[in-house]
Specification:
By secondary structure, this protein is an alpha/beta fold. It has three domains: 5-69 and 168-335, Phosphoenolpyruvate-binding domains (TIM Barrel, Alpha-Beta Barrel); 72-158, M1 Pyruvate Kinase, Domain 3 (Beta Barrel); 353-471, Pyruvate Kinase, Chain: A, domain 1 (3-Layer(aba) Sandwich). It contains 16 helices and 22 strands. The strands form four sheets. The protein has an eight-stranded parallel beta barrel, surrounded by six helices. A seven-stranded mixed β-sheet has the order 4-12-8-9-10-6-7. A hairpin with a 4-residue loop joins strand 9 and strand 10. Helix 1 (17-26) packs parallel to helix 12, helix 5 packs parallel to helix 7 and helix 10 (290-302) packs across helix 12. 43% of the residues are buried.
């Protein structure tokens, strides 16, 4: 049972049931549906397939619906690509047309209003660099081509110096969100988050629909870094989306941004995913580069809850092999002490959570002292699972819950395995029964130390206020 979770993006290469089943068996914990691509019917089929696989394997695979967000793109261009020559100019218009080497269309209606002369325009993940020469403020912008190359259809536009006026949730996102919530997905990925208000807006929609999905803030804009503390406070999890982030901010800043965000997330008990180009060469190759191996390992050493695959599993030639390769790295890194025991004492306060937080913190400290093999938490909301995980204990973390909705949700959280359990009669009976289940399934051996945390009286399912150390 590995502790670091694997997120895999599903696409044509991985959507067949036999491939997806193999991927889950090899170690996929979360499937990501990328709403930048694919019709709802296609995503619906993947959701049905993964739920069938979970029934067959007894797994609880989490489903992440990743919204496209205000992603700016050029339109169609002629001949499948046009050559932009450095020193020449390119006009960008908001009037729909087939693009040429002199003029292209963008789907961003307020482009001419938002940009200013001197600002940078980056195309195709920064491969082509333009600078704004002039704008008519309505529908056309003239750009100087600083670094040219071939521009093909539908490539992304990044504006690192411009404050764009688009809402975080576009009309397309709202339609996709409604579909995702109808499917009862576990996590919603919010792209291009700029402020905590973006998170609050999305959470209001989810609450109004009476759904259980939690929010992942994708950090890929420089504005997000200015408000990162407030964003982490409001969100349920964070994704370090290094693709657009590495274009929007200087690339050399990304490693330290990654480390900083991970540390802030651990301190706030929020799961954090490291994403983009982790094993990019395995889209075509059967093995990763040594630099990619180091990248996955370093994300784990930084403290990430999960590592994510994008094109490697969605369109790559080796979707199962890339999971095997990633799990090999995870297994090796998890042998070493460096990733364990991030002890974060709860801040003294009068808040209701102080007692629960203190129990979780001391459970992890005690587990370290007695070399306990398991910390077992009984929870309805999942809160104590998140708190125990954030301390990064070496002991396994087992969440027992009568709330089926959090079984899959918890599959994103570092070191946590969830079980459905609804027989909470008395504390002693429940603890004995859970130890029996864990021994029977091979997670515990006779005489292993086990720490149980729960609320007393257990039948009321209140705040966690009890810690018990015993042997299996």
């Amino acid at each position: 049972m590995k502790r670091t979770k694997v997120v895999a993006t599903i696409g044509p290469a991985s959507s067949p049931k036999d491939v997806l089943k193999q991927m889950v068996q090899e170690g996929v914990d979360v499937v990501r549906l990328n709403f930048s691509h694919g019709a709802h019917e296609v995503h619906n089929e993947v959701i049905k397939t993964i739920r069938e696989i979970d029934v067959e394997l007894g797994t609880h695979t989490a489903i992440l619906a990743d919204l496209q967000g205000p992603k700016l793109r050029v339109g169609e261009v002629e001949n499948n690509g046009v050559d932009l020559v450095a020193g020449k100019q390119l006009k960008i218009t908001t009037k729909e047309m087939v693009g040429t080497a002199e003029k292209v269309f963008t789907n961003y209606e307020d482009f001419a209003k938002d940009v200013k002369p001197g600002e940078s325009v980056l195309l195709d993940d920064g491969k082509l660099v333009l600078r704004i020469a002039s704008t008519n403020g309505k529908d056309e912008v003239v750009c100087d081509i600083i670094h040219g190359g071939v521009l093909s259809s539908k490539k992304g536009i990044n504006l690192p110096n411009t404050k764009i006026s688009l809402p975080c949730l576009t009309p397309k996102d709202l339609v996709d969100l409604e579909f995702a919530l109808e499917q009862n997905v576990d996590w919603i990925g919010l792209s291009f988050v700029r402020s905590a208000r973006d998170i609050i807006e999305l959470k209001h929609i989810i609450k109004d629909k009476e759904k259980h999905a939690r929010v992942i803030a994708k950090i890929e804009k420089p504005e997000a870094m200015d408000e990162i503390d407030d964003i982490i406070l409001e969100t349920d999890a964070v994704m370090v989306a290094r693709g657009d982030l590495g274009v929007e901010v200087p690339m050399q800043n990304v490693p330290l941004i990654q480390k900083s965000i991970i540390q802030k997330c651990i301190s706030n008990s929020k799961p954090v995913i490291v994403a983009t180009q982790m094993m990019e060469t395995m889209i075509t190759n059967i093995t990763p580069t040594r630099a990619e191996v180091n990248d996955v390992a370093n994300a784990m050493l930084d403290g990430a809850d999960a590592v994510m695959l994008s094109g490697e599993t969605s369109v790559g030639k080796h979707p199962v092999e890339v999971i095997k390769a990633m799990v090999k790295i995870i297994d090796e890194i998890e042998r070493h002490d460096h990733i364990y025991y991030h002890e974060e004492p709860p801040a003294e306060s009068n808040e209701d959570r102080f007692v629960s937080d203190s129990i979780c913190y001391n459970a992890c400290r005690l587990a370290k002292r007695v070399e306990a093999k398991a910390i077992v938490t009984m929870t309805f909301s999942g809160y104590t699972g998140f708190k125990v995980s954030s301390q990064r204990p070496r002991a396994r973390t087992f969440v027992f819950t009568g709330n089926r909705k959090i079984l899959t949700l918890m599959n994103l959280v570092w070191g946590v395995k969830a079980f459905y359990y609804d027989k909470m009669v008395s504390t002693d009976h429940t603890i004995a029964d859970i130890k029996y289940i864990l021994k029977k399934q091979g997670y515990l051996q006779e005489d292993d130390f086990v720490i149980n945390i729960a609320s007393m009286p257990i039948s009321e399912q209140g705040m966690t206020n009890m810690l018990k150390l015993s042997k299996a």
